[in-house]
Automatic annotation (TrEMBL):
Record-given protein name: Leucyl aminopeptidase family protein
GO molecular function, one term: manganese ion binding
Lineage: Bacteria, Pseudomonadati, Pseudomonadota, Alphaproteobacteria, Rhodobacterales
TM ranges: none
GO biological process, one term: proteolysis
Residue ranges annotated for the Cytosol aminopeptidase domain, each copy included: 308-315
Keywords, in A-Z order: Aminopeptidase, Hydrolase, Manganese, Protease
Keyword Manganese on entry: yes
Pfam families in UniProt: Peptidase_M17 (PF00883), Peptidase_M17_N_1 (PF21337)
Superkingdom assignment: Bacteria
Family of the protein in this entry: Belongs to the peptidase M17 family.
Any one cellular-component term (Gene Ontology): cytoplasm
């Protein structure tokens, strides 16, 4: 589905955005019929309230959206989308009340409130279109919204239709649309081209493992995105219990996120040289699955002791990161649904990230606030390096003890980047319950924040 603003404001219903503090002033200036209707319906400008006001013929003559108080708004985001869900089908235009500095975010949220994953079953919903508010770049906002929709669609698709080959197909479609180059290394060719850990993790599955390599742009700073593409994770021989396996179609959420971010970059024509690397595998159980206590040799030459086959994401990312680092781009960013420890630390709504670069942190934090895309900085805590050093090999893929799991995973990945600025995002990629502009299911995290940070970060 395509998310877009109304093509015209002809016949659009005027929508007044009203705070609790401003309600009495607004209603007192209205005619008696409107006052009576609004008060009878209990509208007071509370956050997320939506009310349609009929005219003499019964058709809506205007609508109201409650914008609450500053304190209430601070506890959530996409408040206009919450109100939109309570309005009847129709086309709306903002008549008054929406602060200028919130127009882009609220318009973006309205677009995302129209998202439905309808590949397998029709999703009925009222069609509520919005005329793009004055002063926003409507085309850019539509690109961001549809890029987020791509990420959601990829995550929501079950592994039966989103295996490594299907993920490759999605990447090829994106590359073709924007004129990007794409190369894919598959199966035993991974061994021949020195990507052994990607091959090892994925070799037990029916669909061959692969590395997807997309390039776009011929001038500007170099940005490389690396996304974890584990299309389904059984845990391997360290088999997950059923309850833990239920959401593992989303274990390629990092790949979905970097493809969504790549679409934002290409769709808005940012002047940079983009590379996207996605190790696409299934972590399956078979006679040739890799085993606990195996020792693997990575592309970088570092050896890794396998103490849990369910810690496979860092293995495939490690080879891809080593490959990315060989070009020494200006910035490498990895995104992955990597650890349960990150969820325990910050919950599903925040995207924890790791960076030691002050300029990166400053640019990202500012953009995250501006785009209503929350992130939380976590530390590359050097004293924990010993926790990933087992002695029998250079690295341990699953340190014992259970402490600081997202930090030790990030430290593991950092060992494979030595010549480039590096940041890592340990995202969840899933909205566990319905929220304004966020349907239950797959969701993008930190991609809009990163998109907004790139101009400052890379001097674009």
């Amino acid at each position: 589905m395509s998310l877009s603003f109304a093509p015209s404001e002809d016949g659009a219903i005027p929508l007044f955005v009203i705070t609790e503090d401003g309600f009495e002033a607004w209603v007192s200036e209205s005619d008696a019929a409107v006052q009576g209707w609004v008060r009878a319906q209990g509208f007071k400008g509370s956050l997320g309230q939506g009310l349609s006001i009929p005219g003499p013929d019964g058709a809506p003559q205007m609508a109201l959206a409650g914008f609450g108080t500053a304190r209430a708004r601070a506890r959530g985001r996409f408040h206009l989308a919450a109100a939109a869900g309570k309005l009847p089908a129709g086309t709306y235009r903002i008549a008054a009340g929406l602060p200028e500095d919130q127009r882009e975010t609220e318009a973006f949220g309205w677009l995302l409130s129209q998202y439905r994953f309808d590949r397998y079953a029709k999703q009925s919903a009222a069609d509520r279109l919005l005329v793009a508010p004055d002063g926003i770049d409507a085309a850019r906002i539509e690109t961001l919204a549809n890029s987020e929709a791509l990420t959601r669609d990829l995550i929501n698709t079950p592994a039966s239709d989103m295996g490594p080959a299907d993920l490759e197909k999605a990447a090829r479609a994106l590359a073709a649309h924007y004129g990007a180059e794409i190369n894919v290394i598959t199966g035993d060719d991974l061994l021949e081209q020195n990507l052994p850990m990607i091959h090892t993790v994925g070799r037990a599955a029916d669909q061959a493992p692969r590395l997807i390599d997309l390039r776009w742009g011929d001038a500007g700073p170099r940005l490389t995105l690396v996304g974890k593409g584990v299309c389904f994770d059984t845990g391997g021989l360290n088999l997950k219990p059923g309850a833990s396996m239920g959401l593992m179609k989303k274990d390629m959420g990092g790949a979905a996120a970097v493809l969504g971010l790549a679409r934002m970059i290409m769709g808005t024509g940012l002047p940079l040289r983009l590379r996207v690397l996605i190790p696409a595998v299934e972590n399956a159980v078979s006679g040739n699955a890799f085993r606990p206590q195996d020792i693997l040799t990575s592309r970088k030459g570092l050896t890794v002791e396998i103490n849990n086959t369910d810690a496979e994401g860092r293995l495939v990312l490690a080879d891809a990161l080593a490959l990315a680092d060989e070009e020494a781009p200006d910035q490498i960013i990895s995104m992955a649904t990597l650890t349960g420890a990150a969820r325990v630390a910050v919950g599903p709504d925040l995207a924890p990230y790791f960076s030691d670069e002050p300029d990166f942190v400053a640019a990202l934090e500012e953009a995250a606030a501006r785009h209503a895309d929350p992130v939380w900085r976590m530390p590359f805590h050097a004293p924990y390096e010993t926790m990933i050093e087992p002695g029998i090999a250079d690295l341990d893929n699953a340190p014992k003890g259970g402490f600081a799991g997202c930090i030790t995973a990030a430290l593991f990945l950092r060992r494979f980047v030595t010549d480039s600025a590096y940041a890592h995002f340990d995202i969840y990629g899933w909205q566990p319950a319905e929220a304004p502009a966020r349907a239950k299911g797959g969701v993008g995290q930190a991609t809009r924040a990163l998109y907004g940070a790139l101009p400052a970060l890379l001097d674009l």
